[in-house]
């Protein structure tokens, strides 16, 4: 049995990981904002003895410290796996996004996992544990209206790669999982720039085009199922040696292959043409 802490456990990939990992016999510390008021989210889990529900807003220094204190006092300072899953997608043209929105995107998607990992590393070094960062295929490339979201994931990818080497001497393994489009509630949870839906925005046509495209991609019966990431993470936890990164989903794997084998100029020309189909010829 491993002790596993998961952020962003209230829905989507996070909730599925909680269910699957408890089903495998692990002890899961499921963290989310306002845990006390939202504990009913986990009512379907039969073995509550292997579940600890903990309030953790990754933007809160106090919550991060409290999570570290919980591991220290209740688990003798031992943690086997940290899964940094909490995050969201901010979309919109840079001109349409407020400074506050840009900063909050980086707080949740980058600074939160960075500082939580920093807090919990002494416990992970003790067990020669694992850090799994749920990144995105958009940590490998960006697209119109996705620049800020991609920037947050590129930053997380940089952190992951550096830690992969930094922690190797201590036996701590680090991996980034890069999901593409999955059948989840991601579209409904997307946050748009403050001015993205203004009819006088120069980017309104691009905004409408992207929204249609993402809805189509994630609603197709052929889109990768939402349980895919949880299955990948479960396998990583059971592996003796994790790779540095794993692509998750058909489109993500296709992107990885294209980046590896296509000349850079051709790769970007293909992206440009695909963007024209989604956003119009003005791209």
Can you describe what's shown?
The structure is a single chain. This protein has 283 residues and is of the alpha/beta class. It has one domain (3-250): Rossmann fold. It is 47% helix and 15% strand. The chain has helices at residues 12-23, 61-74, 99-127, 147-166, 186-189, 204-219, 228-238, 250-261, 264-279; strands spanning 3-6, 27-32, 51-55, 81-84, 90-91, 130-134, 173-179, 182-183, 191-192, 224-225, 245-248. Helix 1 packs across helix 7 (228-238) and helix 2 runs parallel beside helix 3 (99-127).
CATH top level assignment: Alpha Beta
**Subunit arrangement of the protein:** single chain
Segments where pLDDT lies below 50 for 5+ residues? Answer: none
Tally of structural domains: 1
**Shape-level CATH architecture:** 3-Layer(aba) Sandwich
Mean pLDDT: 92
| Strand line-up across the major sheet | 3-2-1-4-6-7-11
Percent helix:
40-55%
Q: What's the helix-strand series?
A: EHEEHEEHEHEEHEHEHEHH
């Amino acid at each position: 049995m491993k002790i596993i802490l998961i952020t962003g456990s209230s829905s989507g990939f996070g909730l599925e990981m909680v269910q699957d990992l408890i089903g495998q016999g692990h002890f899961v510390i499921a963290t989310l904002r306002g845990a006390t008021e939202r504990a009913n989210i986990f009512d379907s889990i039969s073995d509550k003895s292997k579940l600890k529900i903990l309030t953790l807003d990754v933007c809160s220094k106090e919550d991060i410290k409290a999570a570290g204190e919980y591991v220290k006092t209740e688990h003798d300072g031992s943690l086997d796996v940290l899964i940094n899953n909490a995050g969201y997608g901010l979309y919109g043209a840079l001109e349409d996004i407020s400074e506050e929105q840009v900063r909050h995107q980086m707080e949740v998607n980058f600074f939160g996992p960075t500082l939580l990992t920093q807090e919990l590393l002494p416990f992970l070094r003790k067990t020669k544990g694992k850090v799994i960062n749920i990144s995105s295929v958009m940590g490998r490339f960006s697209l119109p209206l996705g620049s800020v979201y991609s920037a947050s994931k590129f930053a997380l990818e940089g952190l992951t790669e550096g830690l992969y080497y930094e922690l190797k001497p201590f036996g701590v393994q680090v991996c980034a999982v890069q999901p593409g489009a999955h059948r989840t509630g991601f579209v409904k949870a997307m946050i748009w720039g403050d001015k993205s839906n203004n009819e006088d925005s120069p980017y309104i046509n691009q905004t409408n085009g992207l929204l249609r495209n993402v809805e189509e991609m994630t609603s197709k019966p052929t889109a990768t199922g939402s349980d895919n990431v949880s299955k990948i993470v479960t396998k990583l936890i059971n592996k003796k040696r994790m790779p540095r990164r794993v692509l998750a989903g058909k489109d993500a794997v296709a992107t990885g292959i294209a980046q590896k084998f296509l000349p850079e100029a051709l790769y970007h020309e293909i992206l440009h043409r695909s963007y024209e189909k989604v956003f119009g010829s003005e791209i």
